[in-house]
Every structure is written in C-alpha cells, then in structure tokens.
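Anyone have tokens for S8 family serine peptidase? Sequence:
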Amino acid sequence: MNTDSATGRVPEGPTGRQIITFAPVDDATATRELRDVAGFDIGTPRGLDDPAAVATNDVYLDKLGIAIVDSAPEQLGALSRALGDSASPIIAVEPEVYVYPFDTIDAMDAPPTPMADDADTDSDDDEVDAAETYVDTDTYAWGLKAVRAVPPILATAPWAGAGIRIAVLDTGIDLGHPDFAGRVLASQSFIPGAAVQDGHSHGTHCAGTAAGPKSPPGTQRRYGVAHGSRLLIGKVLSDQGSGTSGQILAGIQWAVEQGAHVISMSLGSRVAVGQTYYTYYEQAATAALNAGALIVAAAGNDGWSPVGAPANSPSVLAVAALDQALQRAPFSCVALNGNGGEIDIAAPGVATYSSIPVAKGSYGFKSGTSMATPHVAGVAATLARKTGLRSRALWQELVRTAVPLPQSAQEVGAGLAVVPTRRRPVWDYQPMPWRPGPIIDPGPLEPRPLPSARR
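Reply: yep, here.
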C-alpha cells in the first residue's frame, strides 16, 4: 500500500484495511478463525519474515495476537458478526488508519533559539523555577538543561543509559551521520521499497534527542539525553511522512523482539472528542509492557484537542510539549478524553536542536510533541539504567520523579520528566503501589478489559 498521496499531503483517516485483535489463544487457533469466519488464508502463523509486506499483505503478528487484513465488504460483515459470538476469540475489528509525524516546524525553517553563556548558576536540583527561560548554549541544547542532563546536574546524575536499548519508530535514521557511528544495534524498514535511510529528517532528529552522543564530532553542542544507550531503528513512516497503524504495530513487534527497553513513537493520528482508544494499540502496548518495554508516544499537535492515537491508549505513556519557559506549548494536545486519553508527563518540545540527515545540514531545529517524546525516552533510559526498573515499574518511577509544574494535569500530566540524581539512590527507591493491580511478569496477553497504566 502506498501511504503517500499524489499531492504530497499526508493522507488521513482509514486506509480501507481492517485490524483484528484476538483474545489470548494460540496462533493456529487465531489464523484458523480467520479462515473459517471470513476466508482469510494467512497460512501458518508468522510474524515479520517480510517486514514491508505488512503494508500490502494479510499478516498475522504472532507476538501481539493481531491480524491485519484487506477485507471485502462480505468478509468485514462476517468478522463483525463473529464479535457477537462468545465462542469466537475475536475481540475487536477496527480500521487501519494513516499516521504521521507529530512535529510542527521543519528543521530548515525553524529559527534558532537565543544563545546564552555556558555559566550555570543553578544550585538546587530538586526544584525547577518555572519562571526561568531556558536557552541553547554553545555546548548544549536547552532541553538537556531542562531535563537535568547537563552540568552541574550531570555531576550528580552520571547515568547515561548504558546498556539500555531505545527503539525509535519513525522515518528511519541517517545511517551515514557521524554522530551515530556504532550506535545503531539493529534497523528495519516497514515501508515497501524503502530503505531505513531517513529521507525526511524527523526520525534522525528524534533519535538524536533520545540518544545523541555525549560529544558530537560535528558540533560542540550536545543534544542527546541518554548518550550511553543504543538505538533500534524501525522505519514505519515514509520519507514523505506517512504510514499506517498496521506498520506501527509491526514496528512494535519488531522492537519487542529486538529487546527494546523503551519504545519512542513521535507519531500518530487525530481522534475526536469522546473517541476511545484503538483496541489493537492497547493490546500491543500491553504485550510490550509484559515483555519489559515501555512505549512513550507523542500526545499530538492539534492544540486544545484530545490526545491522539496511540498515545491515548491506557498502556502508552502520553507526552506533552513544553516551551523554553516550561509552559505548555500552544500546539500540544490536552486531556479531553478519559479512559486512556490523559496526559502523563511533559518535556521540552519547542525549537529543540538535534541531528538531521547530513544531506539536509546535519543539525537543525524542530518543534512538536514529537520532540518532547524522545526527551522522555532518554530520561526513561537513564532511569532504567540507574534503578534496574522496567515496564510498569519504570512508568511509575518516571511519574513519581517528575517535577510538578504550575499548569494543570490536563495540560502537562505529572510535570517535567527529569533524569535521576544521587539524591535518590537505588537503595532508597520505594515503588508506588500499582493500580489497578500488581506488576505483571512477562507472559501471555491478558483478555479484555486490558489493565490501565494510568494513575
């Protein structure tokens, strides 16, 4: 399926295909149900032998218990009737939808932020002065200062995410960028006919914010939060900036199979007021959590509008964007829908400096909840390294250690995500009680209703 329109505009709405979510059953039972109910002959259960085939073929994602099919009207009717059959393992039949990046300013058009001297006068790393305006310096991007990933805070927070794998599902990455030499552990394209190489710039920018190097060889300004972590790159958006929810699901399964600890997704689609989450995203997010991976996703850039999908899923951490004064960016979506549509946490997302493909200038500025999300992914990696926490426990600690902001939780959630410091040593860690139930060890997918990761 070609996800790019002839006009160059990112398509929106349903693609015409369907995504089928199954209750916990073995793979043979799921694929047999597809054949018996609607005549889909997917064959033996398979995952991602041909990753790009998810865009054009009927595919069963065996680690998620989800099928993506191109259905005729009569097949869709048969699937819908199966939902009312208590004996059927099918729990949801929902449309595949187009997705796009959640950034607002192109790297080549964004004005640079004002520069400041490198002198750092902050002495209290337990509070944030919400009246302070952060600026870039010659040695670091303002977002790193805001999340406490640069000196003098770094002297008391040396964890850089070493040993942690951050999966960035986006437009790919510039594999020839010198800042990522030896940093990408694995990469895979889910876009038919397209290599992982980033022809857009969004993916390279997000990967850089999450895990750019401590000392970039091409610039003196550091921009990566978790510079000790390693990257897994899944190209799920085309070079024109579009993809489908089915390709996102395939990317999630791949990231889980690659051992990701944090999955960063600066993308999604709009939802209406009152619209609930997609069951397939929630099932995929739950599967990721059960495998030890936390999904962090952008809330969306439609201003005072509901959090987009997949960030509106209860088991996906939704990220809002902040400006240089730590105020909610006007474009950042808010919590208008419940049942998963809350904002969980916030991070820098206005005029953020990071890497872009060498052919486009190597470095540039972007704005969006897309840019806030990899800041949180990087913070999560440093916290995972320090505490050893994973999955739901890592989520809870991210929220617990966030710095409260003057705005409401509807706008910024628990507040500003920040890297850990020695003032909260590992042995002093006291986990918050998980609600609605205890932390779940990795295991089979849970039946609906799926557990909520919200507070």
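Confidence is low (pLDDT under 50) at residues 106-111, 118-131, 423-455.
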